[in-house]
Amino acid sequence: MRLLYSAYIKNPKNVCFDGEDNGEEVLLILRKHVITNLSWISISVLLFNMPEIMFFVFKLNGFSSWEVIPVSFRLILGMFWYAFSFGFVFVSFLTWYFSVNIVSTKRVVDIDFFGFINRRFSEALLTNIQDLTHEISGVAETIFNYGTLHIQTAGEKQEIEFEDIPRPSLAQDFISDLTRGVKADGVPDIKETNK
């Protein structure tokens, strides 16, 4: 159940991802901070209340009789409106839930999910990580302690970004400790990251 609503999950149990190698273990899962969902939740509340708002606006402007519009048309229009609203909520939640940043014993993975038809998968080996920088800017990010972690790599893709993640300084320290262990011994220092 923790996987459903959490945005910062350390040492998750029974988790795997597409392209995971044998012996690779997921150590950290990051999603956008839960507070970033407030924008689409607010829009959803507005969408679900729009028919009542429109009815009130029409009544204020003198159009008080809905009997002019046939019942079947009102029913079909309402069904389409609420189907659209539920679709918006569903796609927005899935976009948040499946856009995941993963730190494993071998690499960092950034999976960006856009609706049902588009997904971007970026990864960098821990040995290719050169620099880690986190950025917290703005009032909401400062109050709720979330921000962006920039991961500079020596690979083909020069930078991977973990956007709007909770506790970016802890994630930076976690990845830094892992990277240091891999570069020194060829094996990630999992004991160091579990403190």
Description:
It is a single chain. With 195 residues, this protein is of the alpha+beta class. The protein folds into 2 domains: 108 residues, Roll (PH-domain like); 55 residues. It contains 6 helices and 8 strands; from the N terminus they run αββααββββαββαα. The strands form 2 sheets. A 5-stranded antiparallel beta sheet has the order 1-2-3-4-5. Strands 6-7-8 form a 3-stranded antiparallel beta sheet. Strand 4 and strand 5 form a beta hairpin. The chain is elongated and about 80 Å long. The mean pLDDT is 88. Keywords: Membrane, Transmembrane, Transmembrane helix. This is DUF304 domain-containing protein. It comes from candidate division WWE3 bacterium.
As a percent range, the share of strand residues is: 25-35%
* Sheet having the most strands: 5 strands, antiparallel
Strand order of the largest sheet: 1-2-3-4-5
CATH architecture of the largest domain: Roll
Q: Count all strands and give the number.
A: 8
Helix/strand-derived category reads alpha+beta
Poorly predicted segments? none
Shape summary? elongated
How many helix segments? 6
In the CATH scheme, the class of the largest domain would be Mainly Beta
Q: Whole-number radius of gyration?
A: 23 Å
What is the helix fraction of residues, given as a range?
A: 40-55%
Give the quaternary arrangement of the chains. Answer: single chain
**CATH third-tier fold name of the largest domain:** PH-domain like
User: What is the distance, rounded to the nearest whole angstrom, between the alpha carbons of the first and last residues?
Assistant: 24 Å
What is the string of SSEs from the N terminus onward?
Answer: HEEHHEEEEHEEHH
Number of domains: 2
